[in-house]
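User: Reviewer 2 asked us to show a designed sequence for the structure in our supplementary figure. I'm pasting the structure tokens here. Could you produce the per-position amino acids so we can include them in the response letter?
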């Protein structure tokens, strides 16, 4: 995913650039499609599918996997934001609990 582009290998056994023939053979797949999960220029991960039969993936299959990757990025970002919000809420709650009672009521 160094190029941040999808990887489409219609036949892993016949593609001279594909460097994982042993893995593909052992796993039993011949076609591979991997799409990056991009947040801006950052690659968060990948989503991939493989199948036993050799042959190219259709445009609609590629589009569907790209959509899954985009949705996965949104889910990862939402989880990150939720975790940050929980941490901040806990921090504020702890501060509130440890402050003097008069400071919490707004009176001196």
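Assistant: Here is a per-position design you can include in the supplement:
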């Amino acid at each position: 995913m160094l190029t941040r582009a999808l990887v489409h290998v219609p036949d892993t056994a016949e593609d001279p650039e594909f460097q994982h023939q042993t893995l593909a053979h052992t796993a039993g797949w011949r076609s591979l499609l991997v799409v990056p999960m991009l947040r801006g220029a950052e690659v968060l991960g990948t989503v991939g599918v493989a199948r036993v039969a050799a042959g190219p993936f259709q445009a609609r299959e590629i589009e569907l996997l790209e959509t899954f990757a985009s949705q996965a990025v949104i889910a990862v970002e939402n989880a990150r934001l939720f975790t940050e919000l929980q941490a901040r809420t806990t921090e504020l709650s702890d501060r509130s609990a440890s402050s003097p009672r008069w400071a919490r009521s707004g009176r001196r």
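For the response letter, you might also mention the following. The radius of gyration is 24 Å. The helical segments are 21-27, 59-98, 101-105.
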